[in-house]
């Protein structure tokens, strides 16, 4: 038994026996806690008596290539005092397992690391342990929440970014459910996610931080959307707002796409088919100009000649390239002038309506766009940020419970202090 206890590795338990029914079934190790002195009632202090025992089956880590179960013969205590209202209670031993969880403490910590750090699915981990999805998920949520809500996780932030992310689709019409990612833009670290993409949840999140933390944020990066502007205006009024280049370039690209599809329809009367010149040009159009070799350039010119009689697609293409070029400039002094010039050109009456609209958006966000040249906060970490977005998306797959999703995403992309996993208790 001494050797058996060593293998089971829990200092405060007695091993009662090991049940090995079938080579394919999990090994069942029956234990009870060492009971040196009986418990006393928490209300009246009377020495308690044992009422009965519950055998609680816990999923443990596999041993010697076998799945394992720990069968904890829990004592149920009763207060014998007649006048006492306490009645009975079950013993607790968090070193064995946290109450109400179906995994042992060590299996729960291991599962949290597998799901949270390695980004493995709950199902995979449940298959390893030979238990069901909920048992693993409950444990990962309980331990994981302590790690992600550790106040030390969110350190000082110089540039705070807000970005919308699709969380899930819900209901009969598969309605998109949005969330807002709150990001440390410089290090590419996910600070938190809040439900929805309006201003209130993000405002509330910022209001819950202390004032000193908010005060040291110098820049706020955002897509060009009103709600996030409201968040910064109200919660971080001193921070310089910076329009995320990624979103402006993306917007210019989608305007080009709109023009192409409209011209396609106006000239040929149907949506793009594989032999239509504009349809054939669609990939070349979205490529960056410097990535087009001479052959590709000629091909694009030829296709536009054939499919774009009024030169509207070409105008939109030039607008897209000009927006990209905006970010090649490095002179902060002249940035605002460039933005104004570009947006004025776009709003010219000869421009296609989609491009004029882009110009109006740029005028409305002129100072935020130009501020990038001063801050350049989202320049370097763009790759990091794309990687972060991918990580978030990967976790999002198929999840519908926001609280679960938040914990999973933050464990995976929020850089919790994993050295604390050994000590947090749910
Ligand atoms: Zn009592």
Describe the overall structure.
The chain has 426 residues and is of the alpha/beta class. The protein has 3 domains: 1-96, no CATH class; 152-244 and 379-416, Ribonuclease H-like superfamily/Ribonuclease H (Nucleotidyltransferase, domain 5); 245-375. Helix content is 46%, strand content 19%. It has 16 helices and 10 strands. It has helices spanning 2-8, 105-116, 122-129, 133-148, 199-207, 211-215, 226-235, 245-268, 277-286, 294-307, 312-326, 332-346, 353-364, 366-375, 382-396, 402-413, and strands spanning 13-19, 27-33, 49-63, 66-78, 88-90, 159-170, 175-184, 189-195, 219-222, 240-243. Strands 1, 2, 3, 4 and 5 form a 5-stranded mixed sheet that branches. A 5-stranded mixed sheet has the order 8-7-6-9-10, sandwiched between helices. Helix 5 runs parallel beside helix 7 (226-235) and helix 11 runs antiparallel to helix 12 (332-346). It is elongated, with a radius of gyration of 30 Å. The structure holds zinc ion. Zinc ion binds at residues 41, 43-44, 46, 79, 81, 84, 86. Zinc ion is lined by residues 41, 43-44, 46, 79, 81, 84, 86.
């Amino acid at each position: 038994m001494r050797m058996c206890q060593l293998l089971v590795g829990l200092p405060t338990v007695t091993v009662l026996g090991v049940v090995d029914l079938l080579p394919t079934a999990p090994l069942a190790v029956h234990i009870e806690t060492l009971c040196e002195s009986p418990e006393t009632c928490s209300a009246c202090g009377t020495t308690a008596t044992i009422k009965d025992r519950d055998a609680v089956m816990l999923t443990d880590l596999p041993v010697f290539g076998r799945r394992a179960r720990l069968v904890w013969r829990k004592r149920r205590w009763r207060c014998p005092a007649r006048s006492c209202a306490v009645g009975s209670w079950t013993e607790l031993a968090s070193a064995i397992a946290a109450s109400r969880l179906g995994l042992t403490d060590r299996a729960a910590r291991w599962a949290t690391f597998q799901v949270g750090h390695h980004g493995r699915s709950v199902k995979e981990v449940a298959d390893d342990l030979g238990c069901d999805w909920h048992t693993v998920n409950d444990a990962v949520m309980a331990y994981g929440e302590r790690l992600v809500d550790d106040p030390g996780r969110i350190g000082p932030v110089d540039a705070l970014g807000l970005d919308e992310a699709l969380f899930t689709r819900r209901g009969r019409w598969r309605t998109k459910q949005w969330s807002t990612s709150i990001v440390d833009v410089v290090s590419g670290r996910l600070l938190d996610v809040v439900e929805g993409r309006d201003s209130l949840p993000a405002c509330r999140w910022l209001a819950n931080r202390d004032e000193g933390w908010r005060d040291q944020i110098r820049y706020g990066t955002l897509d060009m959307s009103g709600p996030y502007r409201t968040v910064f205006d109200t919660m971080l009024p001193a921070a310089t707002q910076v329009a995320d280049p990624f979103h402006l370039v993306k917007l210019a690209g989608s305007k080009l796409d709109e023009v192409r599809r409209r011209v396609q329809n106006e000239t040929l009367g149907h949506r793009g088919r594989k032999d239509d010149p504009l349809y054939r040009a669609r990939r070349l159009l979205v490529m960056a100009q410097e990535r087009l070799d001479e052959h590709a350039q000629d091909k694009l010119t030829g296709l536009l000649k054939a499919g774009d009689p009024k030169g509207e697609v070409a105008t939109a293409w030039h607008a897209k390239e000009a927006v990209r070029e905006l970010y090649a400039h490095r002179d902060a002094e002249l940035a605002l002038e460039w933005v104004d010039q570009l947006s004025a050109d776009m709003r010219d009456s000869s421009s296609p309506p989609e491009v004029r609209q882009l110009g109006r958006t740029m005028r409305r966000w002129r100072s935020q766009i130009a501020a990038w040249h001063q801050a350049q906060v989202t320049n370097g970490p763009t790759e990091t940020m794309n990687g972060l977005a991918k990580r978030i998306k990967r976790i999002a797959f198929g999840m519908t419970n926001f609280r679960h999703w938040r914990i999973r995403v933050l464990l995976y992309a929020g850089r919790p202090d994993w050295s604390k996993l050994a000590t947090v208790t749910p």
